[in-house]
Design brief:
This is Diguanylate cyclase. By secondary structure, this protein is mainly alpha-helical. The chain has 2 helices and 2 strands. Helix content is about 55%, strand content about 10%.
């Protein structure tokens, strides 16, 4: 299990990546509406199998989309 500080740093970095992507797209294509959602899962907390981790990250992605635009969500038990 990751400590609380590491998890907060990861969440911060995921949010920064999401916002960077959106701002870059808006700057280069101002006539196109762009938003980004990000779902991620912590390794090895939820396994080592890449396919399983990708599926869990996908569930987190849909949770992020459910909560609104430009969000990042970490996978947790009970999502999806």
């Amino acid at each position: 299990m990751h400590d609380q500080y590491s998890t907060k740093v990861l969440i911060f970095l995921a949010s920064i990546c999401t916002l960077f992507f959106v701002n870059k797209c808006r700057a280069e294509c101002p006539d196109i509406g762009v938003t980004a959602s990000l779902g991620y899962v912590l390794h090895p907390d939820f396994g080592d199998d890449v396919a399983v981790l990708a599926g869990l990250a996908d569930k987190a992605l849909y949770e992020a989309k459910h909560h609104g635009k430009n969000t990042a969500v970490e996978y947790r038990e009970g999502i999806g």
